[in-house]
Write a structure and sequence with these properties.
2 copies of one chain form a homodimer. By secondary structure, chain A is an alpha+beta fold. Chain A is built from 3 helices and 4 strands; from the N terminus they run βαββααβ. Chain A has one domain: Alpha-Beta Plaits (2-Layer Sandwich). The interface between A and B is large, with 46 and 46 residues.
C-alpha cells in the first residue's frame, strides 16, 4: 500500500471532507499544511488523513476522526484556529467542508 | 467559485470517498475517467463529484449521492462495472473506498 493511504479502524467513524481551491503562490501554505497534518495526527480521536492536490490548485483532504467530539476539539485547537484564519485570509480562494459518518469501507484491488 | 466544486443540496446526503494510487502510465485511464464522470452525473440521485490527483499519482474523488439506492445503482451500472474491472486490472495500485452519510456542510471563506 502506498504511503498516501490512512490505515483506519472498522467503521463507524467520521470523515471531514475538505475540498479547496488554492490561491496563487505558496505564501507559507506548504509548511503550515505539513505542520497542521502532523499536529492533527497527534490529537486524540484523529484516525488519519489523506490528501491530494491537482496542479491547478484544486485539492481534497479527507481527515478521519473517531467521533464528533474529536472533530470539534480539532476545529477549536488554538494552533489550528490560527491556521484557519490564515487559510481564510490568504490561502484559499474557496473551500467546501462536509462532515460525514462513515458506514462502510472497502479496499482493493483484491487478488493482484 | 472554481469549476472543481460540486454544488450540492443541504444535508443529509451520501459521499463515496474513493482514494487511489494510480499505476504508472495512462493506459486509457484519462479517457475512461472523463467518460465515467459524465455518465455518473447523468444517473438519478448522483448529486455531483469532486476530484484531485497529485503529481505522484495519489488521488481522491468524493462523489455525492442522494441515498444508498443511488450509490448501489451506480456501483452496478453495466458500463461502470466494465470500468471497475479495468481499474482493478490496470489502473490502480491500491484504492480505499468509504461510504459515509453527510450530516453537516460549510463553505468559505466568508467575507472576501
Amino acid at each position: 500500500m502506498a504511503a498516501g493511504f490512512a490505515t483506519l479502524p472498522l467503521p463507524p467513524y467520521y470523515v471531514v471532507a475538505f475540498s479547496s481551491q488554492r490561491t496563487t503562490g505558496d505564501n507559507g501554505y506548504g509548511a503550515m499544511a505539513d505542520a497542521m497534518l502532523e499536529l492533527a495526527l497527534q490529537q486524540p480521536g484523529c484516525l488519519g488523513a489523506e490528501s491530494a492536490r491537482s496542479p491547478d490548485g484544486f485539492g481534497i483532504t479527507n481527515a478521519y476522526f473517531a467521533d464528533e467530539a474529536a472533530i470539534l476539539a480539532w476545529k477549536n485547537h488554538a494552533r489550528h484556529l490560527g491556521a484557519q484564519k490564515l487559510g481564510q485570509e490568504r490561502w484559499y480562494e474557496h473551500y467546501e467542508l462536509r462532515i460525514a459518518r462513515v458506514e462502510r469501507a472497502y479496499s482493493g484491488p483484491e487478488g493482484r
